[in-house]
Design brief:
The chain is mainly α and 151 residues long. It is 85% helix and 0% strand. It has 3 domains: 49 residues; 45 residues; 52 residues. The radius of gyration is 39 Å and the shape is elongated.
Length: 151
């Protein structure tokens, strides 16, 4: 009946899974009650309790196909759509995209100016540290010289 070991394994696992789900849903656990309540709510909301089993199957198949296509379309096209909307929003907020090069140049100029200012501050601080260190060294030398008794 089964041609290979993998088919037999998957069949046994599938039967075990189906029997486990059937067992869990037949037991009055909280999860089983919740699933039964949601199934009942679904059937009442869409009036499926009035349909024959064949009509329910057709309705559920169409609903499943619609939801599946909607999910696949969202996964495929939504990221590009969000990108397009973000670009349009940026255009409405900042202006023409060709001005982007000039804004990059302006940002580069600001960056270079900030780098030069930072270098100047670092040089000034290190100069102050050197002056303070030399002044404090002179004070220490003077205090030490005053504190040494003359021989």
């Amino acid at each position: 009946m089964f041609s290979d070991h993998a088919t037999l394994t998957y069949t046994v696992l599938g039967l075990f899974s189906v029997s486990a789900v059937a067992f869990l849903l037949s037991q009055p656990t909280d999860f089983a009650k919740w699933v039964q309540k949601k199934k009942y709510q679904y059937e009442v909301t869409f009036a499926l309790y009035m349909l024959t089993p064949t009509e329910k199957f057709v309705f559920n198949s169409i609903l499943f196909l619609f939801v599946s296509m909607l999910g696949i379309a969202a996964a495929l096209y939504l990221p590009d759509h969000i990108t397009i909307i973000a670009r349009r929003s940026f255009y409405y907020w900042a202006g023409d995209a060709s001005l982007g090069n000039s804004s990059y140049k302006a940002a580069d100029t600001i960056w270079q100016t900030a780098a030069r200012a930072t270098d100047a501050v670092v040089d000034a601080v290190s100069g102050l540290k050197g002056a303070a260190a030399s002044a404090s060294a002179q004070e220490v030398a003077q205090v030490v010289a005053e504190g040494i008794p003359a021989q």
